[in-house]
């Protein structure tokens, strides 16, 4: 993750460098022309910027193609360099994945999701449970396992986040939906006609996660949600 | 901003609390300690499990076990170390604190993890303790860069039963951890301070003059008892710690184990033998089941428990069974809290639960019999029996066990009431911070002073008998209850000491002989009354006087931090030499 952000910085630097060089070329060119036309011109004074602007428009009017070349060439050059750097960034992990197939989801964006799966596996054995074929087992057997998985997963979640109901009323209670209700918080089902307010029966209180705090990662690959366990006799 | 920081350096868990001193009504808060919860992740937890994991070189790799404030570490303490302890027991140090107070071993020698093979680099109990304190200091400094821990007033709790050597070693560990100035405080006292802090000014309504409060602290691995008397001075209530118990290696962990053994024996009868991995799962299940069954509102008589199969046959390998109230009654109530009489002697050689070799675990698992033993020695007449109890420690958070213990103690004499309102998990750390405030005059202080009386052994003049050490007389140099910041001198008794030569005094202590005064010489005593500690040694360096003999007398001092110091003071001038506990020496 460190390397990809480092590459991003390199690309930005290359592009900025191209623009700066292009601007420097343009300024230098305009000053040269100004100097040729007016030898008393100095680089001091408030009129400096406006003079450049005037000169640039004048020159570009006189030799449009020639001027543009000076301006565009550095941008194009460095953009090309940036493109190749970007290309390398795309290609490196791709080959790595091929080498270590099956593919591992990676990147900063997915790390918290993988971390959460890791916690549910480590403390609640959730992945082991989901990945096991349970058709052949009796309900008693599945139920016995589920009890332990339930308490492990619950502990894993409750230790790191607060989960609260959006609507505290009992399931089955009659609730009022205000005219300015937020459809993100309430999903209406059944005979939804006319304009709110509505009155209906609460079928599900909804859930909200507040105060989520995941462990701080100090290294390792978050896609390894459980290492293989080997007991040395 | 100056802070007071209280550290409960527990046998199984350490907790840190703090409070600001410049507030009108200082509030005591917990410091959530960042720690490794897996090899590669750090989380804040209210307690730091007192476990140290020493991984093999290959497992460390290039990255080691990094913390946010330390790039590379070759060890881990806390939650991750505890979980690895179940998987790689040879490489995890547990109960370092019990080793620190284990007088039959050399406590500065590299002996831990106890009994592990030679390829594990071992550490001394002092070094392990220093690592826990180092972790706490570094975690604190990372969270409070403007208020580093070494610059704050730090109070560390120790069991009341810790002898002078164990206290001295705790101070040494703190110095090694970069905390040169800490104050020690006894755990049951800290629990009582926390109770005062929790109930507030109302505490004066809940106790009265003449009350004797038995503080019963049952931690994960140790049980610690203290008796606090409520007196009066100038019309206001005064508290005095009048007695402390012995170090009892018996706690909540033993109870979980005992229950697990009982259940596994029953499973074995049905033909299923648990492997080590499944047994660890069973211990955890038993702990949960115990809490469910002991819950006041619990109406069930059995709790369904399952141990998941290992690996990919999770459902297929799951074992299912019930833990019943009968199991609990038999293993826990009858095993650890039996109904006993005050006169019942401790049972020797009856062992319950898993015994880790090396540590002197309590032979008698009955907490109630230990309480009886303590009271019999410390409160011989009925008027001295407790009138109230304060419970502390995770096990005692269930009211079933509290009321059972209360009933048993009450059956020995006085009615005994329960002081409610304690916080059994974090009270000791909170109480330590409260004590820091009390030391500044912002709270009630428990008078107590030294928990023990101390004696110097004087060898009696008698003809040498081969193979027999000459018997010693015990000269009392420190009476019980000598308070912080006070001195006692013994000018009447002179010793002649040779300059330039190491001098050794045999050193003894007693937790029961409350009335011995300074200067008293004992010829004879019972073995369970007075215990010999490590000897006190010094070398009299005095330039220009080599070879001469200097007349000295002894002077004792308990400094402001509660640490006992003994000095040899020259009779004729101002020369003084400090006696140091020789902690390396093995007890004979």
List the SSEs and their pairings.
The complex is a heterodimer of chains A (233) and B (588).
Chain A: H1 2-37, H2 48-62, H3 64-99, H4 111-124, H5 126-131, H6 139-158, E1 162-165, E2 174-177, E3 198-201, E4 207-210, E5 216-217
Antiparallel strand pairs in A: 1-4, 2-3
Chain B: E1 3-9, E2 13-20, E3 29-31, E4 33-38, E5 41-45, E6 47-49, E7 52-53, H1 57-60, E8 76-77, H2 79-87, E9 92-93, H3 96-100, H4 125-143, E10 153-158, H5 164-176, E11 182-186, H6 187-199, H7 203-206, E12 212-218, E13 223-233, E14 236-244, H8 252-269, H9 276-294, E15 302-307, E16 319-324, H10 325-336, H11 367-378, E17 388-392, H12 399-410, E18 417-418, H13 427-439, E19 446-447, E20 453-459, E21 472-478, E22 486-498, E23 502-510, E24 521-522, E25 531-539, E26 549-558, E27 564-570, E28 576-581
Parallel strand pairs in B: 1-10, 10-11, 12-17, 14-19, 17-18
Antiparallel strand pairs in B: 1-2, 2-3, 2-6, 4-5, 7-8, 7-9, 12-13, 13-14, 15-16, 20-21, 20-23, 21-24, 22-26, 23-25, 25-28, 26-27, 27-28
Helix pairs in contact in B: 4-5, 6-13, 8-9, 8-10
Low-confidence stretches of chain B: 350-357
Tell me the strand percentage band of chain A: 5-15%
Q: What count of structural domains of chain A?
A: 3
What share of the residues of chain B lie within helices? 25-40%
Structure notes:
The complex is a heterodimer of chains A (233) and B (588). By secondary structure, chain A is mostly helical. Chain A has 3 domains: 2-99, no CATH class; 110-160; 161-216, no CATH class. Chain A is built from 6 helices and 5 strands; from the N terminus they run H-H-H-H-H-H-E-E-E-E-E. In chain A, the strands form 2 sheets. Chain A has a two-stranded antiparallel sheet. Chain A has a two-stranded antiparallel ribbon with strand order 2-3. In chain A, helix 1 packs antiparallel against helix 3 and helix 4 crosses helix 6. The longest helix of chain A has 36 residues, at 2-37. Chain A is flat. The two termini of chain A are 38 Å apart. Chain B is 26% helix and 28% strand. In chain B, strands 22-26-27-28-25-23-20-21-24 form a 9-stranded antiparallel beta sheet. In chain B, strands 1, 2, 3, 6, 10 and 11 form a 6-stranded mixed beta sheet that branches. In chain B, strands 18-17-12-13-14-19 form a 6-stranded mixed beta sheet, sandwiched between helices. In chain B, strand 12 (212-218) and strand 13 form a beta hairpin. Chain B is globular. Chain B starts with a strand and ends in a 7-residue tail after the last strand. The chains are: A mainly alpha (233), B alpha+beta (588). At the A-B interface, helix 4, helix 5, helix 6 and strand 5 of A face strand 4, strand 5, helix 9 and strand 15 of B.
């Amino acid at each position: 993750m460190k390397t990809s952000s480092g590459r991003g910085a390199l690309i930005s630097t290359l592009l900025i460098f191209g623009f700066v060089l292009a601007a420097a070329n343009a300024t230098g060119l305009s000053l040269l022309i100004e100097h040729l036309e007016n030898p008393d011109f100095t680089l001091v004074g408030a009129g400096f910027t406006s003079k450049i602007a005037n000169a640039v428009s004048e020159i570009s009017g006189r030799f449009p193609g020639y001027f543009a070349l000076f301006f565009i060439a550095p941008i194009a050059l460095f953009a090309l360099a940036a493109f190749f750097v970007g290309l390398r960034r795309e290609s490196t992990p791709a080959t790595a994945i091929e080498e270590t197939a099956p593919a591992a989801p990676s990147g900063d964006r997915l790390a918290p999701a993988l971390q959460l799966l890791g916690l549910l596996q480590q403390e609640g054995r959730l992945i082991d449970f989901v990945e096991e074929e349970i058709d052949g087992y009796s309900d008693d057997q599945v139920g016995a396992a589920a009890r332990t998985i339930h308490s492990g997963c619950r502990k894993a979640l409750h230790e790191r986040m607060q989960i609260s109901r959006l609507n505290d009323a009992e399931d089955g209670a009659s609730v009022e939906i205000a005219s300015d209700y937020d459809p993100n918080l309430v999903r209406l089902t059944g005979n939804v006609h006319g304009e709110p307010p509505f009155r209906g029966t609460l079928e599900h209180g909804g859930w909200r996660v507040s105060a989520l705090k995941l462990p701080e990662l100090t290294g390792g690959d978050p896609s390894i949600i459980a290492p293989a366990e080997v007991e040395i006799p | 901003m100056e802070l007071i920081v209280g550290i409960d350096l527990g046998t199984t868990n350490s907790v840190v609390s703090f409070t600001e001193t410049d507030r009108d009504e200082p509030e005591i808060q917990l410091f959530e300690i960042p720690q490794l919860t897996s090899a590669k992740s750090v989380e804040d937890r209210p307690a730091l499990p007192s476990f140290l994991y020493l991984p093999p070189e290959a497992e460390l790799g290039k990255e080691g076990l990094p913390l946010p404030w330390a790039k590379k570490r070759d060890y881990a303490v806390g939650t991750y170390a505890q979980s690895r302890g179940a998987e790689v027991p040879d490489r995890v140090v547990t109960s370092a604190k019990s080793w620190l107070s284990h007088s039959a071993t050399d406590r500065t020698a590299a002996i831990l993890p106890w009994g592990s093979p030679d390829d594990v680099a071992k550490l001394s109990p002092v070094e392990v303790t220093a690592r826990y304190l180092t972790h706490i200091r570094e975690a604190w400094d990372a969270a409070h860069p403007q208020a580093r821990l070494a610059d704050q007033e730090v109070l560390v709790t120790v069991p009341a039963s810790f002898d002078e050597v164990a206290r001295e070693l705790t101070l040494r560990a703190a110095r090694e951890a970069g905390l040169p100035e800490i104050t020690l405080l006894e755990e049951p006292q800290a629990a009582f301070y926390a109770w005062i802090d929790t109930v507030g000014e109302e505490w004066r309504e809940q106790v009265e003059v003449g009350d004797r409060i038995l503080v019963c602290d049952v931690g994960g691995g140790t049980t610690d008892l203290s008796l606090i008397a409520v007196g009066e001075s100038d019309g206001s209530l005064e508290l005095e710690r009048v007695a402390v118990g012995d170090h009892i290696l018996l706690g909540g962990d033993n109870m979980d184990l005992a229950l697990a053994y009982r259940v596994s024996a029953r499973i074995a009868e049905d033909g299923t033998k648990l492997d080590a991995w499944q047994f660890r799962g069973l211990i955890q299940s038993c702990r949960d089941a115990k809490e469910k069954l002991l819950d006041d509102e619990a109406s069930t008589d059995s709790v369904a428990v399952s141990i998941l199969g290992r690996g990919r046959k999770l459902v297929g390998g799951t074992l299912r069974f019930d833990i019943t109230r009968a199991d609990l009654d038999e293993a826990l109530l009858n095993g650890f809290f039996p109904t006993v009489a005050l006169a019942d002697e401790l049972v020797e050689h009856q062992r319950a639960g898993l015994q880790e070799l090396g540590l002197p675990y309590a032979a008698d698992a009955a907490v109630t019999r230990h309480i009886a033993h303590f009271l019999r020695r410390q409160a011989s007449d009925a008027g001295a029996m407790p009138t109230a109890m304060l419970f502390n420690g995770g096990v005692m958070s269930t009211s079933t066990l509290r009321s059972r213990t209360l009933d048993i103690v009450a059956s020995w004499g006085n009615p005994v009431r329960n002081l409610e309102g304690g916080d059994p998990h974090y009270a000791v750390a909170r109480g330590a911070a409260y004590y820091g405030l009390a030391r500044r005059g912002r709270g009630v202080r428990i008078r107590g002073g030294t928990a023990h009386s101390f004696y110097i052994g004087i060898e009696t003049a008698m003809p040498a008998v081969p193979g027999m050490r000459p018997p010693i007389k015990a000269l009392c140099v420190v009476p019980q209850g000598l308070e912080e910041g006070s001195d006692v001198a013994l000018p009447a008794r002179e010793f002649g000491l040779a300059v330039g030569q190491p001098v050794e005094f045999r050193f003894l202590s007693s937790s029961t002989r409350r009335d011995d005064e300074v200067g008293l010489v004992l010829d004879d005593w019972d073995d369970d009354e007075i215990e010999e500690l490590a000897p006190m040694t010094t070398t009299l360096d005095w330039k220009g006087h080599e070879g001469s003999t200097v007349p000295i007398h002894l002077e004792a001092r308990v400094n402001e931090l509660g640490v006992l110091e003994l000095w040899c003071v020259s009779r004729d001038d101002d020369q003084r030499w400090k006696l140091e506990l020789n902690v390396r020496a093995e007890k004979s």
